[in-house]
Design brief:
single chain, mainly alpha, Histone Acetyltransferase, Chain A, 3 domains, two-stranded antiparallel ribbon, globular
Length: 328
Amino acid sequence: MNMPEVETYGAQPPIELLRQLVDCGGYYDLKEKSWVNIVDTVMCCAMGPPGGGRNGTTPRFLRHFHLLCVDSFDDDTLTLIFSTIVKGYFRRGYSGDVAQQAGNVVQATLRTYREAMSSLLPTPSKSHYTFNLRDFSRVVQGVLLQEPSDQFQNKPSVMRLWTHEALRVFGDRLTDDTDRQWMCDHCSQMCKEVFKCDFQSEFEHIRPSDEQETGYGTLRRLFWGDYMTPADEDERPYAEVPDLQQLQERTEEALNDFNSASKKPMELVMFMCATAWRAKFNLGFNLGFVDVVVRCSTRCVSLGGRGRVWASQRAEMARSRDANNSQS
């Protein structure tokens, strides 16, 4: 209810229409010039404290509600909630080194969440720089996609997985090089202070030749997903992509599969940037991140918008296939 803009004299027309529904039980039909009663309706609304772009709401409307005020969780509460989840999950067949990193995953996510809210502030050109507990939970949810495996046995693996999920949730929103560099520096800081790993050496295997040190260009080449396993396999583990060339080839295979099954094939060149955003599409659909899908769709561009259409269709096909497999 904070969204309606306040007019010169303090009125908010959308709020007044809602208040009319509660006070009078209906609306006027402007075409028929008659009153329409609305029955069997319960109104449930949500709002935040005024400030930071949120407008206040008239007490004449609020008086109709039973108000439930929920305070923000403090750090100790968030740590307890998410540590319980991660520690319980990491007891399911993971190695001892991995299980010991449950607390570090939560601590690094909490610090990233708090520092993003204090450093990455919304502006007119960055109105989407808003973070909430959903972002915290999405990082944790992404980490928990990783099943026990021979390739996921030690602390550096957990650190790289956490870095990938933090980049998908927080880093992909960033729109300029200054903010991206802030994110890179923050990941380096979490690697050293929380996970106690060497940030430079742990990402050396994906570092491009034109970078002497691990930077944002290196982190852009960090991918985790289930798309490296053929679609006809029963199990498609969520794992790190060790070779970008294999990812490129796998994406081109997916494009060929799409063209062979579609009545409207698309002749696209799958360069690395398009491959990267297709991978992010896949993660967004798997986890139900609507905003991730929207951000990806704005980046996958080709003539006539076919690139983003194909990327969204391929990711949706993969999601539908997995849903059908789980039901069967």
